[in-house]
Amino acid sequence: MSDSYHVHETDSEESGAGDGETDAEGTGSAVDERIEDREDSSVTPSDDEDLTPSIQEVPDSRAVIRAEELSVHYGEEEALQPVTMGIPEREVTAIIGPSGCGKSTFLRCINRMNDMIDAARVEGSLRFRGKDVYDEDVDPVALRRRIGIVFQKPNPFPKSIRENVAYGLNIQGYDGDVDARVEEALRNAALWDEVKDQLDSSGLDLSGGQQQRLCIARAIAPDPEVVLMDEPASALDPVATAKVEDLIADLSEQYTVIIVTHNMQQAARISDKTAVFLTGGQLVEFGDTNRIFENPENQRVEDYITGKFG
Ligand SMILES: Nc1ncnc2c1ncn2[C@@H]1O[C@H](COP(=O)(O)OP(=O)(O)O)[C@@H](O)[C@H]1O
Ligand SMILES: [Mg+2]
Asked: Which residues fall in a compositionally biased region of kind Basic and acidic residues (predicted)?
């Protein structure tokens, strides 16, 4: 039962969750009080209670993505234990958990980015608007137009700002007004005012934070329905991070956003729903973000959120 705690070593790079003292304070006194209650009453949860995942149901009418017994192996290693959950439309869902717990693996299942990893074997089902994205007749390139992705490290192409944003439109043979779409995407990515006079200069000349917003503009220009983000702010300074966080909140008016972060404060600030994965690749709790941070049902989630490990 407790093996999973031992294999986890705190990675200094991921210390957003590693500083137990700070995190425990940051989560507020309600959690601290409940912890004291539990210690006072000297009730320890049974193993069963400890291991039972708590997954909020999302009705079909609201779920744009539904995983059912979705699991991933890399060779012999199980990176993601069977996950069953729905992801609600036009909300921000945060995926949190310690390093190596399968967050990126899960995210990559959604738009079939794991296809590019030879060792990866995906089982179970992942449905997008009712259709299993792993069905033989699904074209992964077409799928990725509807489910865009933004990575941790800003990765603009060595092309002009305009060409970066227009990239997906050109691939899909968009025959409308490309410049208008470029402008719209840059506006939605909160970058237009900063770059409107330099659209033909290289995307690589922008600052890191601007580059990441450029990548977000590139991801949303083809008008996807879902935007996946894998730690999109963890390579950015605090000011750029705040801009990207504001932007994510705005994006959820139009798109379903699924964001991986190991920064719990960030998840608490920007998401509507939170999914907590723990070591061993298990989805342990999923539900409304406020409820998860204030009153997690699962003891291991509480331990993680209050900084006892992670
Ligand atoms: N391309 C890969 N090949 C083999 N193993 C991998 C690969 N990517 C990830 N893994 C393994 O799968 C597990 C989950 O990794 P990952 O999804 O990257 O976790 P996270 O994003 O939560 O840090 C880890 O044990 C990791 O070493
Ligand atoms: Mg990752």
From this structure: 1-10, 31-41
